[in-house]
Amino acid sequence: MKTTGVSQASMKKPDTSRAFWKMSLLLLLLLPLSLMATEAGAAKISFEPNELTATVAPGEVVTVPVTVSLTGTTAPSSYAIVNISSVEGETLESEWINNQFDLYLDSTDNTTQVAFQVKVPAVAKVGNYKSMCRAVVRMTNEIDVPPADLVINIEVSEPFACNQAPEFKDISSAEETINVRNNKEVAIGLSGTVSSPAGCDISEAWYQLTDEYGELDQEKVDLGINHNGTFSVAIPMVASRKGGDKDGRLYTVKFFAKNEAGIGESLETTIVVLHDDYKKMEHDSKRERHDSKKESHESKKRDS
To answer: In this structure, how many other beta carbons lie within 10 angstroms of the beta carbon of residue 66?
Structure first.
């Protein structure tokens, strides 16, 4: 009878082995979903872009803007205090770049922009250099926000050499001659174009006025250049000449511009104050009318 009682008790005991395996299977099915949900909801810091490349000549400075964002937050009123600094062991000297930033981001204002400024020394060797900057969260109410890395590649190029001075062309004058006007001041308009090779900046431009009599000489008068290289200027002169100056008073204008390579200059432009020999002018006018009538008569004669 005891043996039979033991046998009945054994038959009523629950199957713990089967329950264990059911529970294990359920956990295996739920675990990936749990991990996916955790990964999707995890807060993170990111750079956009996360890698930059710039070409800089020795002695130059380049500024590269980068956007830093806090995303995937789950905590109410999320915030993060972020520090950005260089990672040791890269080839770009830390002194070349402003690499220390402290940022505050939160769920309301979760994006900001920082400007990395790279200043390459004038003695830097030509070559490729690399810097890695890392954003680390120093304080936050999120859980386990991982750091983010930014790679900055700098190519130090051969220094640019400006080797051509500015060039002038298409210089024109509104008037080439001036009639005598009893010492009256007149303004003569001149215009033209000046060009400089790409990378060579015109730092200064001026004109020079030379008066045959030495009364109105101007050694250096500033000249304004438009963004497309054109210019125009009204140059004051006096419409008079000396009585014995039979060939008239001569003014000479010359333009100059300067860049890193040197000074370029234009050809001379001349303006003459005519001699006021009215009898000669009247005689010349009559002769021109006579020649015109004669040519017209001969043309009609040929046609007939």
So the answer is: 20
Helix (H, G, I), strand (E, B) or coil at 226: coil
pLDDT for 302: 52
Please classify residue 197 by burial: count the beta carbons closer than 10 Å to its beta carbon, then call 0-12 exposed, 13-18 middle and 19+ buried: middle
d(CA 283, CA 288): 9
Residue type present at position 10:
S
64 three-class SS: strand
Q: Show the low-confidence residues of the chain (pLDDT under 50).
A: 1-12, 33-40, 278-287, 289-290, 293-294, 297, 301, 304
Q: Say if residues 247 and 212 touch (Cβ distance below 8 Å).
A: no
- What span, in angstroms and rounded, lies between the C-alpha atoms of 72 and 44? 6
Token code pair at residue 18: 């089967």
DSSP state of 123: T
- What residue ranges define each of the domains in the chain, with the CATH number in brackets? 44-156 (2.60.40.10), 167-276 (2.60.40.10)
Q: Residue 129: beta bridge partners?
A: 154
User: Tell me: the pLDDT tens digits for 207-250?
Assistant: 999 999 999 999 999 999 999 999 999 999 999 998 888 889 99
Q: Say how far apart CA 133 and CA 122 lie, in whole Å.
A: 24
Q: What is the number of other CB atoms lying within 10 angstroms of the CB of residue 118?
A: 22
Tell which residue, 233, 237, 273, has the closest CA to residue 255. 233
Would you say the pTM of this structure is higher than 0.85? no
End-to-end CA distance of the chain: 162
pLDDT given at position 280: 45
If one counts every other C-beta atom within 10 angstroms of the C-beta of residue 203, the result is 11
Pairing of strands 127-140, 44-48: unpaired
